[in-house]
Amino acid sequence: RQMTEGMRNSLAAGEFYLEYQPRFDARGRHIRSAEALVRWAHPERGRISPAEFIPLAEQNGLIVPLGDWIMRTACETATHWHGIGVSVNVSPVQFRDADFVQKVRDCLEETGLEPSLLELEVTEGILLEDADRAISLLKELKKVGVTLAMDDFGTGYSSLSYLRNFPFDVIKIDRSFVSDLDRKESARPIVQAILGLGRALGISVTAEGVETNEQLAILTADHCNEVQGFLLARPLRAEQVAELLQEMP
Ligand code: G
Ligand code: G
Ligand code: NA
Ligand code: MN
To answer: Where would I find the EAL domain in this sequence (predicted)?
Structure first.
């Protein structure tokens, strides 16, 4: 409860900020886009993890104004990156907001960001409650021209049927599969199957949570489209991303 009150004031007080974790081409050489990740610098408690405050914000509804602020800030930042896209995590609660699609439109129009440079990362949570509504929302978003990604792929219940019915452009392989790549024999065939699925359906595949050179080598050999993880880059401040883009265009 205390944290709920705190959060409301904190948004107004500017205590939230974004970091951006770069996503790279298959070889881990060139930055293709970056994922916005929200951070909370609490004046007394220090940094609070989103793993702690996002679930609270989802319960108390603050995720809607917070999510609006995240999307707008991310779009505004990406306009300075000259063709490098930005991805934003969208909570199922934001997805329930009747104004969500209009907010996306407004955000693109007001910041001037090219629609395809905004990627929305959703988890299957959005599909669980009312799948028909979710399909029609995703189709509307598609018309707006944004890129749609299914996050944490492979961890849910019926991800395969979702791919058949939903217009996703990108699959993000959950990092649990990636971290198993150099530990468990069964991991590589699973990752290969996801990559084959992506190829067959014309969906780009991003591997998240790449932490070792061995994992990267396997993903590159198996033609994963994009890689992301601490090995390549940690979440960075916007200025650091801009610097990296100058160093390795
Ligand atoms: O950045 P980190 O690994 O600490 O994030 C922990 C969790 O918080 C992850 O599940 C991540 O998806 C989620 N998260 C981080 N930033 C955002 C955000 O901007 N919006 C939403 N909805 N979730 C986020
Ligand atoms: O749920 P989602 O996939 O959006 O989670 C993103 C979170 O994953 C971010 O908070 C980010 O800090 C974290 N992350 C990004 N790269 C790595 C990595 O290489 N290893 C681990 N353990 N976490 C990572
Ligand atoms: Na994500
Ligand atoms: Mn993920």
So the answer is: 1-249
